Amino acid sequence: MPSESAGPTTFHVPAVRGAGNRCRALLGIIVLAVALALVVGAGRALWDVASQTDFAARNLAPSPAHPFGCDWMGRDMLARTLAGLSTSVLVGLVAAACSSVVACALALVAALGGRAADAAVSWLIDLVMGVPHLILLLLISYALGRGVTGVAVGVALTHWPSLARVLRAEVMQLREQPWLAAARASGASAWRIAWGHVLPALVPQLLVGTVVAFPHAILHEASITFLGFGLPPELPAIGVILSESMQYLSAGYWWLAVLPGAALLAVVLAFAGLGSLVRALTSARTVQE
């Protein structure tokens, strides 16, 4: 009897712990996703307010009426910061999604297209990773005329190599599985194997890679905009706000840069935490721990 009762105990405890870990990860994902959605929604709702000037409130320090203060034109900095964050998040969303598509396509070509295709993709990955990231992003954005399109395309074309390398290694492991060998033996084409068998198995890695690419995309968008190679000055954006506020820091108007910068950091950390939770949710270790 003792041996029989010990069996169910050792079997069910890890399952309960795993379920608790997954529930906590899912709850964290929901909370962070809702918070980020609220930031984007508030930014879009305050888009017109962010451009309204009131010279009677110029250079106003943070107060209950204006928590982030006002700039040299009397524009509310909280509204401008939220509008800028919404722009950065939307640009990062498009760029990260496109980058993930490129990474997935190249990983499938490298793993299922033969030795020549694998060598070509590996050479392309090494080439892109060998160029300084920010310089390549600046060149692409400048060549495409800057603006939203130039920044989104530039970020998308520079953030795929790391994910492509991870996905390629994953496909290499999947290629040795018996069920994939059986699909090849049955005469299935490479396209059918990639679309119907390999791609569904890559969804967790692809989802995690897309979410993890968000903070990098947002930071790089803000960086090149700050340097003057990104979004136009008339568009509310965090990079534009930080770039314009630099000349006023020496006058003591610290809130023009510190508070928007802190908000950008909070959003980036939120996306980083979201990526960690998504990785934990899709990891098999979460069930076992």
In brief, what are we looking at here?
With 289 residues, the protein is mostly helical. It contains eleven helices and no strands.
What would your notes on this structure say?
The protein is mostly helical and 289 residues long. It has one domain (13-288): MetI-like (MetI-like fold, Orthogonal Bundle). It has 11 helices and no strands. Helix 2 (77-112) packs antiparallel against helix 8 (190-226). Mean pLDDT is 81; it is low at 1-17.
Which properties best describe this structure?
elongated; mainly alpha; MetI-like fold; 11 helices; disordered N terminus; 289 residues; single chain
What is the straight-line distance between the termini? Answer: 28 Å
Largest sheet: none
Strand content: under 5%
CATH architecture designation: Orthogonal Bundle
**CATH topology, which one?**
MetI-like fold
Radius of gyration: 24 Å
Return the CATH class. Mainly Alpha
CATH homologous superfamily grouping: MetI-like
Mean of all residue-level pLDDT scores: 81
Sequence of secondary-structure elements: HHHHHHHHHHH
Unreliable stretches (pLDDT < 50, length at least 5) are 1-17
Helix content: over 70%
Count of discrete domains: 1
Shape: elongated
Continuous helix count? 11
Number of E-state strands: 0
Which structural category do the helix and sheet elements fall into? mainly alpha
Which helices and strands occur, and which strands form pairs?
Layout: H1 2-45, H2 77-112, H3 115-130, H4 133-143, H5 147-158, H6 161-174, H7 178-185, H8 190-226, H9 238-245, H10 255-282, H11 285-288
Helix pairs in contact: 1-2, 1-10, 2-3, 2-5, 2-6, 2-8, 2-9, 2-10, 3-6, 4-5, 5-8, 6-8, 8-9, 8-10, 9-10
